[in-house]
């Protein structure tokens, strides 16, 4: 594999994927979300805010799927292009709020959006991490609005979100016609702190099914994703 450009020459590798030395790196949110979305028999996905492309990578490798991966940051789109170059995933650098190419139609959209609220939290002094972690260029609901016209009836919209935002987010998504089908809730001690949600675009609400995650469940969810990344690492070394 070749390094190209100045940002890539300053990259580190984690499980075979190139990422910035400084700035945002993927974490277990990304792996949980990939695990949730991977269970959906969708063929054409969009990864909004793809970062280094880890979720798109996991959805397209070892699966019969094509994808579009979008990131507002040129540097992150460059990393995603590098990581996804052997897969049927197109990477574009764009602010999703400005719209996607008109001919795009997806049966699955995934996003691990910036959670931080401007004014409520400290913004990272690292500009790239600030854009990744704080909603400086829109939040989950802005992303949902942007992709709505590119999703067929019965399409899935999967995302991760702080548990504290979930009730408000669910109401707003239901107004757009997105209903939660699966909600995975994660706890620190006895406090819920994160949800991973699979919503479906439909006319009738699904009955929400949620479960309390324990570490054993979390491990079971992310281990197949870690193994898939590990196989990619071995493939590159061969
Ligand atoms: C929390 S990071 C997630 C990155 C990656 N999906 C992952 O799981 O590691 C959020 C990403 O969204 C991107 N982003 C933020 N606002 C955006 C916008 N309006 N349009 C497209 N991408 C955006 C950021 O540049 C960042 O890479």
Task: Please outline the helices and strands.
Elements: H1 5-9, E1 11-14, E2 17-20, H2 28-38, E3 44-48, H3 54-60, E4 66-71, H4 74-84, E5 89-93, E6 106-111, H5 127-133, H6 140-148, E7 151-162, H7 166-176, E8 178-188, E9 191-201, E10 209-213, H8 215-237
Helix pairs in contact: 2-3, 2-8, 6-7
The structure holds S-adenosylmethionine (SAM).
Describe this structure in words.
Helix content is 35%, strand content 29%. It has one domain (5-237): 3-Layer(aba) Sandwich (Rossmann fold). Helix 2 crosses helix 8 and helix 6 packs parallel to helix 7. The model is unreliable at 1-6 (pLDDT under 50). The chain has 8 helices and 10 strands. The longest helix is centred in the C-terminal third of the chain and has 23 residues, at 215-237. It is α/β, with parallel strands linked by helices and 238 residues long. The protein is globular, with a radius of gyration of 17 Å. It has an 8-stranded mixed β-sheet, with helices on both faces. A two-stranded antiparallel sheet has the order 1-2.
C-alpha geometry:
globular
Give the spatial strand order of the biggest sheet: 5-4-3-6-7-9-8-10
Instruction: Give the count of structural domains.
Output: 1
What is the residue-averaged pLDDT? 88
Helix content: 25-40%
Name the CATH homologous superfamily.
Vaccinia Virus protein VP39
Largest sheet: 8 strands, mixed
Which stretches of 5+ consecutive residues score pLDDT under 50?
A: 1-6
Instruction: Please provide the ordered H/E string of secondary-structure elements.
Output: HEEHEHEHEEHHEHEEEH
Question: Could you say which structural class the secondary elements and strand pairing correspond to?
Answer: alpha/beta
Binned strand content: 25-35%
Number of strands: 10
Query: What small ligands are held by the chains?
Result: S-adenosylmethionine
